[in-house]
Write a structure and sequence with these properties.
246 residues, 10 helices, mainly alpha, two-stranded antiparallel sheet
Length: 246
């Protein structure tokens, strides 16, 4: 609040400071993981822990926690033991496939993400530094022109360029290209692609276009709903009887 009272430039100065600290932590985390890409969330969940699979034989495997929900279990009244419900006869294949472990479920954590180097490492560093560069550009242009397109174009270019560099590095250095990615890497690449849509809500694009759509669209939807409620259903053959007064 104090930064907001001091002006737009002071607010962006605080944002630059916060983004710089976050970028330093991410670069440190990238170094600790031997130049592996960062994930969001940083600790993905898996159905089974590979370290426990080595200590148990095939008959002693426990079902994943997600399958032990109360909705799919039946508790015996005398012993109190819980039994999973039997699948329907038409969904036997789906039931068996849900119990099977995939290759990614038993891989060690380091094998889920491949190390990046060269062009791929540069792309990851650019992706980490993109909020710092964008906020610094907004700080520079804050007092000059709030609707300036330079920071927005710079931010979009860096994020899109980092994505294209990463994809090019995967196609050239990885055997099999994008098809050889693990499920975790594919999910992260897809998430970063969808995150480009957030640029429609930032900077000059928001001030020029999205801001006005946000104010006009709810009014248009409300008008459409009101008109729909007042109209008569053309598929209906009966109409409500009119009330007559005595």
């Amino acid at each position: 609040m104090a930064a907001k009272r001091r002006g737009e430039k002071a607010r962006w100065k605080v944002v630059v400071l916060l983004e710089s600290v976050k970028a330093m932590c991410r670069l440190l985390l990238m170094r600790l993981t031997n130049s592996r890409p960062l994930l969001n969330p940083p600790l993905p969940e898996r159905e089974a822990d590979p370290s426990t699979l080595e200590e148990k034989d095939g008959s002693g495997l426990e079902s994943p926690p997600s399958e032990k929900s109360e909705e799919t279990q039946w508790t015996m009244p005398r012993t109190g033991l819980s039994l999973p419900t039997l699948p329907s006869s038409s969904d036997i294949s789906g039931y068996l496939l849900s119990k099977a472990l995939t290759a990614d479920d038993i891989k060690p954590p380091k094998a889920l993400l491949h190390r990046v180097n060269g062009m791929g490492e540069l792309a990851e560093v650019l992706y980490i530094l993109r909020p710092v560069i964008y906020s610094a550009a907004m700080y520079y242009w804050a007092t000059k022109n709030k609707k300036s397109w330079q920071p927005w174009v710079l931010g979009v270019t860096i994020e899109y360029g980092a994505r294209q560099l990463a994809k090019k590095d995967l196609q050239e250095r990885r055997a099999g290209g994008l098809r050889a990615l693990t499920a975790l890497e594919k999910e992260e690449l897809k998430r970063r692609g969808w995150s480009l849509g957030w640029w429609l809500m930032r900077g000059a694009f928001y001030e020029t276009f999205t801001k006005y759509v946000d104010t006009v669209l709810p009014h248009a939807i409300l008008t459409l709903l009101t008109h729909t409620e007042q109209s008569v259903d053309p598929c209906s053959d009966q109409q409500a009887p009119k009330q007559t007064t005595a």
